[in-house]
Amino acid sequence: MSGGQQQRVALARSLAVRPKVLLLDEPLSALDAQIRKNLRAEIRAIQRQFNMTTVFVTHDQEEALTLSDRVCLMNKGRIVQEGSPEAIYTKPRTEFVARFMGSYNVLSRMDALKLFGKVDGAAQSFAIRPESVVLLKESAESLGTDRRIAAGMIRSVSILGNVIRYGVEAAGVRLTIDALNDGRTLPLAERSLVLLALDESQLLQLEKEGA
User: Fold this and answer.
1) Which pLDDT score, from 0 to 100, does residue 96 have?
2) What are the contacts of 51-57 at 24+ separation with CB within 8 A?
3) Which CATH number does 105-206 carry?
4) Residue 180: which of 115, 135, 144 has the closest Cα?
5) Whole-prediction pTM value?
6) In degrees rounded to 5, what are phi and psi of residue 160?
7) Any idea where the domains of the chain sit in the sequence?
């Protein structure tokens, strides 16, 4: 049997005894991407059908967000943050959480000051999501907002399906920026000069690890 079939059989055997709690310890880790997606959907559907408490252990943040009603993120044996998938993703409290839950740009206070000019609060590290920084295709005036504008250069370009991920350097700071790959425009080339629109309201203050 294939890996996916073996996992389906193991899941069926576990469900046959109607357990009160189902523990799944990285059940999809050895499978290819498409099978993982299919099984992920099946597991979620089964969990809802049987209304069964399920503990799903994973190192994959996409699986954690997709399958969970509540996420407990652990580091060195300690729960460092717990909450709904949306809350964990949009409001990480520490650098560890921000780095685990996606491609957050984690900035030192000095880097944040270089990009934004000023920052509120006393935090020494900050985070901003890659989709929260906008690459301007036209002049800054055309944006019509009060966002801070910074000049930068594209250092790398990666096509991730429906997302184009840019590595951009601005004010001596390296940033990851995600843009929708809608097929209507060609990706910007490496070493292209660009303008970045930065929204200070999207800059998150991070707590010190272990605080």
Assistant:
1) 92
2) 52/19, 52/20, 52/21, 52/22, 53/20, 53/21, 53/22, 54/21, 54/22, 54/23, 54/24, 55/21, 55/22, 55/23, 55/24, 56/24, 56/27, 57/23, 57/24, 57/25, 57/26
3) 2.40.50.100
4) 135
5) 0.79
6) -115, 60
7) 3-100, 105-206
Confidence of residue 142 (pLDDT cuts 50, 70, 90): low
Q: pLDDT digit string (tens) for 67-94?
A: 889 999 999 899 999 999 999 999 999 9
Q: Is 3-100 a CATH 3.30.460.10 domain?
A: no
The region, left, alpha or beta by phi > 0 then psi within -120 to 50, assigned to residue 168 is: beta
- Burial classification of residue 43, based on how many CB atoms lie within 10 Å of its CB (0-12 exposed, 13-18 middle, 19 or more buried): buried
